[in-house]
Specification:
Layout lengths: L3 H23 L3 H5 L9 H20 L9 H4 L15 H20 L3 H4 L2 E5 L5 E5 H25 L16
Antiparallel strand pairs: 1-2
Length: 176
């Protein structure tokens, strides 16, 4: 059975949900977006920044593999994050643009994946320089799961700030 439909659906869902979260966040005043809320990454902005950083890190790792290099070329031009709590953009508008760029790359990349590529092994170094070799499909599922985890934190913070993200269920995602 092919995993491609699952992967492309998850990439589309990821982009759809990120757009919903950023739309809800943009309705808040900047000081509310930046306000410390006791979350793992502090603020709504800190949480959304972490997701941009983590996706950049993972997509840059995938981009080192020749099988994935062409589709992921735009990510290699992005600065490499040094820390997971880094804030790669100064404000929400810039972060939203970066998020949109990452989501477009992720959707385009997954649209071109093959089952053989998903069965491959990615060799990469973590942020401390330790080498790893892991299954591409498992790493991609980690990327999507990580997004869902922290996006859930962001939607909770937004709800506490009076902003409703709306329905987040995969089955509610519009189909094209």
């Amino acid at each position: 059975m092919s995993c491609i439909p699952y992967v492309t659906t998850m990439a589309a869902y990821n982009a759809w949900m990120n757009e919903k979260v950023y739309t809800a966040t943009a309705r808040l005043p900047e000081d509310e977006v930046m306000r410390e809320r006791g979350a793992f990454f502090g603020s709504i902005f800190g949480t959304l920044s972490h997701l941009v950083v983590a996706d950049t890190v993972w997509l840059r790792r995938f981009a080192t593999d020749p099988m994935h290099a062409d589709a992921l070329a735009p990510v290699r031009a992005m600065p490499a994050p040094a820390r997971l709590d880094e804030r790669p953009c100064a404000d929400l508008a810039a972060l939203a643009r970066r998020r949109s760029e990452l989501d477009a790359v992720l959707v385009a990349w997954t649209d071109g994946l093959t089952d053989a590529a998903l069965r491959g092994t990615l060799r990469y170094a973590d942020m401390r320089g330790n080498p790893h070799a892991r299954d591409v499909f498992a790493l991609l599922m980690h990327l999507f799961n990580h997004q869902t985890h922290h996006r859930g934190q962001a939607t909770t913070l937004l709800s506490q700030a009076g902003q409703d993200v709306g329905v987040t269920d995969l089955v509610a995602m519009p189909t094209h």
